[in-house]
Amino acid sequence: MKYSTESEQKRLEWVKSIFADADKLDLEKYVASFTEDARFQVGNEPPAVGHAAIKHAGGAIFSAVKAMKHDIIKIWLEKDAAIVEAQVIYTRLDNRVVPVQCVTILRTRDNFVADARVFMDISPVFSS
After folding, report:
1. What's the confidence (pLDDT) of residue 4?
2. Are 53 and 42 in contact (CB under 8 A)?
């Protein structure tokens, strides 16, 4: 299925807004972009399923850093998915800045994220 330029632009802006909510550490708004039964997984961590579990998993990351910024390198759009390549720049609570390479696959349903898989090694953010 081919998207029109206008619908593709809207989808790109929507995807960017999800990452912007994460960058604002706005957990409520971030979680609201997911379906009620969504799956969220970062690296090798067990998947979080549903809003409460995603809020818990996201909250653990959001509360452990002072700031984060997704510098998006490229977004690929498919019919019901988006693939996002980014460098995520974390500012730790001790003010140390740690950049991490990341690829996220978002599977979508009805203008919400139904499945998010984040491929990155987040361990440098939490190591001493």
Report:
1. 61
2. no
Q: Do residues 112 and 35 touch, judged by C-beta distance below 8 A?
A: yes
CA 6 to CA 63: how far, in whole Å?
37
Pair 39, 33: CB distance under 8 Å? no
Distance CA 115, CA 113 (A): 6
Distance CA 62, CA 90 (A): 10
Q: Which helix (H) or strand (E) holds 102?
A: strand 97-109
pTM for the full model? 0.90
Q: What is the DSSP string of 26-67?
A: -HHHHHHTEEEEEEEEETTSPPEESHHHHHHHHHHHHTTEEE
